[in-house]
Amino acid sequence: MNNDQENRRHFVELLKQFETAMLVTHSAGDQIRARPMAVADIEEDGTVWFISGEDSGKVREIADDEQVSVVCQNDRKAYLSLSARARVTRDRAKIDEVWQESFQVWFPGGQEDPNIALIVARPEQGEYWDHQGFQKIEYLFSAAKAYATGTTPEIEEGEQHGKVTF
After folding, report:
1. Are 118 and 52 in contact (CB under 8 A)?
2. What is the rounded distance in angstroms from the CA atom of residue 150 to the CA atom of residue 79?
3. Who contacts 82 (Cβ-Cβ below 8 Å, separation ≥6)?
4. pLDDT score for 145
5. What H or E segment, with its residue span, contains residue 69?
6. Higher pLDDT, residue 44 or 136
7. For residues 123 and 46, is the Cβ–Cβ distance under 8 A?
8. What is the pLDDT of residues 54-103, one digit of tens each?
9. What pLDDT band is residue 136 in, cutting at 50, 70 and 90?
10. How much is the pTM?
């Protein structure tokens, strides 16, 4: 596996750890809007699925501008950002596949609620910062060394930090 493939694989592994994400869209007048969303599904290629009300502002915004960002943060352990192209679908089979009981809060009619739509965000580029496990130890060591020497931490590309193109 080459380095690009390994970075993509690592990115998707990190992405799958998140249950929520900030979905960032562009609204009328070029304003940027971000809102927390429950992650409904993540595919092996990094495609992210969200469930939404078809009558929501984010659905209208995606209809006008399909470029979105997905941003995730897990305390101080892992961070990632994903630039993607989004679209809205009402694919009943996919709704049934990703349905979680917790979605009932937003859709009282359950899986058959007529307002349910799916937002699918297909990745174009991503970036991650991974400070978990051994990477956390490496980062803490690098940060302590930087602090003691008056420099900035050295972060290994591909392990603690990486950029990926999908």
Report:
1. yes
2. 25
3. 15, 46, 48, 69, 70, 71, 121, 123, 125, 126
4. 57
5. strand 67-74
6. 44
7. yes
8. 999 999 999 999 999 999 998 878 999 999 999 999 999 999 999 999 99
9. very low
10. 0.84
User: Residues of 56-92 as b/e, b for ≥16 C-beta within 10 angstroms?
Assistant: bebbebbeeebebbbebebeeebbbbbbbebebeeee
Helix H or strand E encompassing 20: strand 20-27
How many residues would you count in the chain? 166
Of 43, 59, 56, give the one whose Cα is nearest residue 11: 43
Tokens of 101: 């009981």
Match 């470029």 to its residue by tokens: 67
Higher pLDDT: 38 or 134? It is 38
Tokens, residue 88: 């809205």
Dihedral angle, C-alpha 84, 88, 90, 94, nearest 10 °: 10
130-149 average pLDDT score: 57
